UniProtKB/TrEMBL annotation:
GO cellular component: toxin-antitoxin complex
InterPro entries according to UniProt: HepT-like, HepT_RNase_toxin
Keyword Amino-acid biosynthesis: no
Membrane spanning stretches: none
A Pfam family: HepT-like
Keywords assigned: Hydrolase, Nuclease, Nucleotide-binding, Phosphoprotein, Toxin-antitoxin system
Annotated PANTHER family: RNASE MJ1380-RELATED, UPF0331 PROTEIN MJ0127
GO molecular function: hydrolase activity; nucleotide binding; RNA nuclease activity
Name under which the protein is recorded: DUF86 domain-containing protein
Amino acid sequence: MTRAPRERLLDILASCKAIAEHLECSDTEDGLLFDALRMRLLEIGEAAKDLPTALTDTEPGIPWSMIARQRDHLAHRYFDTAHAIVFEAARHEAPAVAQAVRRMLAVIAEE
């Protein structure tokens, strides 16, 4: 059974928050931090896959299909995942996704 779009958005927001907290706790790019970030990015991608297109279209600046593909890569090719890509996504893309999700939640609340 699929979760409602609002729940999926809250899942994404929770993962973005966890990513920010993980990055605050450690400034090294060690394996444990990499694993934590990778798992949260995977969760974001899984939730993004389940969002309706009508909702993701409200935030065209976010590459939703790329986020979903990244989830597949992280889930199935974990030995072939560059640390730099994970840290780049965590540091620069997750905050933008969190902002977009907050706007999307506001749109849903108005409906």
